[in-house]
Each structure stands twice: as structure tokens, then as C-alpha cells.
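User: Fold this one for me? It's Enoyl-CoA hydratase.
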Amino acid sequence: MRYETLAVQQRDITLFITLNRPQARNAMSLKMVEELNQAFQFANQNPDIRAIVLRGAEGHFCAGGDIKDMAGARAQSSNTGDEDPFFALNRAFGHMITQANHASQVVITVLEGAVLGGGFGLACVSDVAITAAGAQFGLPETGLGVVPAQIAPFVVTRVGLTQARRLALLGERFDGHEAVRLGIAHYLCESPEAIEATLDDVLNKVKRAAPDANRVTKALLHQVGTIEMEQLLDQAAHHFAAAVQSEEGAEGTMAFVQKRLPHWAQ
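Assistant: Here's what I get for Enoyl-CoA hydratase.
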């Protein structure tokens, strides 16, 4: 597929998606949202892809939503009686971030420079987040007179309601050290070389995990708090029984006994 706002490349088990609007600090346009949806759909249809790496071009992850799109929506709103274009614009981002949140792959974000607004939201739905110490995080929406509407629920899930209130209502800005302390990011890196070394290490760990077991485990984790506990544990037991009896389970057990790597880790 051809992309205008992304650079997308598959290497081994990983799909690398780079937000590629460096002239705008990779601000998220509606076109970028559409292309991210397409990239996630491609990954969902390709079982060979076991990890997705999201990062930004030329030193910034994402500076939030593109203000030009809001201006375009305002012009559209005055010229048409159709669906509210501001609603459609905001909701399109919500559909994309939900798709990212529920991707069956391990989603890894590499956070550098600006990690604001929508970029902050993407960080909050990643399974693993690697941050530069000097990255700048924040939710600037209320300072612009708007609302972090599609992002807020994912921020609450990531850091808890108490911290989310502070971050959203004060528009706090903070660096990678604080992002790790809050649980937004997992790995803190002091140099570009450390970021690349950490990313390589994380991808090697993903490769050692069985693909189907990882997919089922991620889906199970997403169900916590959404259904009654006994029902969840019943489902989990069925998943466990199926995994033990699967080809993947047999291979994993045999590899352990024979003191070798299972085929998916080679």
C-alpha cells in the first residue's frame, strides 16, 4: 500500500509504522488517521506480524491533532447541513485509537520529542512504551478551549482517575522520567542509541513469546473489569485448556524438555 503520511515497512515479525509529517512535528491529520486505520487492518489480516512499532519521523512522536483539520471542519460546518463535521473528525480518531488498543499484536511506541494530545493517547494504548528522557508529554486540549474527548478514557485506564484529572485539567507538561513514574512509559532511555538497543531487546522478547498465546493473553487482559470475574475465569480456563492441547503448546513443552528454542523464536 502507498501512504502519504506514514512510512510503513515489515521486517521479520514486526510492522514498523512511522508517523511521517515532520514539518508539522507529525501532527495527526485526518489523512494520517485514515492511513493508521489501514495499517492496523493490514496487520490484523497478516498473522506473520507479531509486533507493531509506532514512532515519529525526525525527532518527534506526535504533536497532537492537526489544527488545519479543525479549521477545515469549521468551514465545512458553515457550508453544509450534514453530520456535524467536528463530531466526525473527533470520532474518526476514536475509531483508530480503539483499533490500536485492541490490535492482536504487541504494540510498541517509541516516544521522542513531542508526545502531545493524540500522540499521548497512542502512548496510552501501547503494550510497551519506550521513552526518551527528554520527551515532552502533555494534554494541551483544555488550554486551546477544546476537550481531550477520545483520549481521556485511555488516559484514565493507563494512569488512574486521580492522575488523569491532574494531567487533563491542568494541561501539565512533563518529561520521560515522569512518564515512567506515572506508568505511561516502561523504559527510560538517555540517548538515541539506548532507544534502539531497548527496542531490539523488546522485539527479541516478543519473538520468544508464542504468537497465539500472546494474542489470547492480550484479549484476556482486555476483558478484566468488563465482565463478571467467575465468567472471566471460566473463559480463561477454556483458553488454557485449548492452548495446552494445541500444536503451539506441544511445541513449547517439547522445546522446554529438549532445552532448545521453540520454532517461533528462531
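One thing worth pointing out: The two ends are 28 Å apart (CA to CA).
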